[in-house]
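Might I ask for a little of your time on a matter of protein folding? Here, with my thanks, is the record as I have it:
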Amino acid sequence: MRLTHLLGTAVVLALGASAAMAERGADGQLNIIYWQAPSTMNPFLSGGTKEVEAASMVLEPLASYDQDGNIVPRLVEQLPTVENGGVAADLTSITWKIKPGILWSDGTPFTANDAVFTWQYCTHPEGGCSQSSYFDGVTSVEAVDDLTVKVIFAEPKPYPYTAFAGSESPVLQAAQFADCLGAKAPECTDANFGPIGTGPFVVTDFKPNDVISLEANPNYREADKPAFGSVLFKGGGDAASAARSVLETGEFDYAWNLQIEPEILTQMEAAGKGSVVVSFQTSVERLHLNQTNADSGLSAEERSVYNDGNNPHPFLTDPEVGKALSMAIDRELLVEVGYGKTGQVTCNVLPAPELYASTANDGCKTQDLEGAKAVLDAAGWVPGGDGVREKDGVRLSVLYQTSTNSVRQGTQALIKQWWNELGVEVELRNIDASVFFGGDPASPDTFQKFYADIEMYTNNFSGADPEAYMANWRCSEIPGPGTQWQGSNIQRFCKPEYDALVDEMAKTADLATRGELAKAMNDMIIQEYSIIPLIHRGGTSAHANTLGGVKMTDWDSELWNIADWHRVE
């Protein structure tokens, strides 16, 4: 006889509800490994995914994106829309209603003033904010009352879910960061390493580029969450050892960004201790071609500094050179040896959603070495005595850097071989990922500082709408000394006509037209060859079979629902 016949359906439902209401912290310690170690817990001071994701355990936005790319309320009662009056009929403002009773982890109330302050912090004229594109078009943020935030736009904004939506645009506590505005922002070590948040966990110890210790937030708004009482967040090492620690040894519960040769990952998963999860959304492994002069002989005020276009790269601003470099690459082979089922060839920096994916650049899918040589010949780049092409005394010689990772070094080696065949001299460099993706403005080795000719990494964006992401390549987003090297326009691409497309998309409501504008922006970047896309990557992570509640997403932080994670038998 079934249990429901013996006890009754109501009793079974009551038992299920009781099981769901587990005591906060009852599942002990959660062990997470991100082999790229975070350098800060302030996502506004780093464009690195590792910082954004680590911080998402503590700092929260008003709304998040779920595993299907849907925007969902987080700190607010409901998603504002035109229908419910939260979005103005003329699309010039959005009003968020904060849930009553939300507390910061220090026990003080979370209010609309914190959101106002966060906007002021990220848009301060004397500071650099890595996520400033999320506030594009925002003229003011107002606290209507303690629980009401009104974001006002300069023009009608058909997609208003940018500021305070997604893990890259969380809310900071005004009281903690009050003295950290502008140029002072990087100096606030205590706040940057241990932000007070509304999320499920609180930082108890932060060791930059190493280990983060966290414990359950005693003031978290859901009394039975998080299930884990503490988190050990380990950084460093490499992708293979991180995967092994979950899939083979069981030392860790969750491992992120497993950029590992496909056959090795499959062998590890066969051990039976964990599962590999893959989510394809918008991540693209790409080459950034520095549009400024990165010569090591230049001063700190000149090296890789845009300087209003007066410091161009000696040859990478020539689209014909970029075109030849792209044509020489066999992307299918890169996928086969480095990614397997976790990668696909792409010719776009914006590969998805389908509405926004261009087909204008699909020629890159086929390698054409002889065609690439012909392009350089026609552009006047001829082989010198040592085989390296030159023109007007300038040699085609590049420093090509990326983070330390076996797949990336394999990709570098193959691309170097193909470029050598073209007559391009290539020096390879790899930098520890924790440093490369760090936000230290004093370091010469960050991807933002870009002290090289070409660099390679992956990036993506939160949510399903690419408006804020495509705004990353505005002229105003170029990093430099004046922004403490913060900014998302890493390759220093600047075209007024591109900025005009960004502005037009911001005031366009029709979805089909928004799709065409996004494609036009993508095509401009690609056909200028400031970015050479390689691989549309699936977000690839692994979790222990004893870890429940994981809802893998690449639309937001992978840890977006960590409050729901729990231990299972």
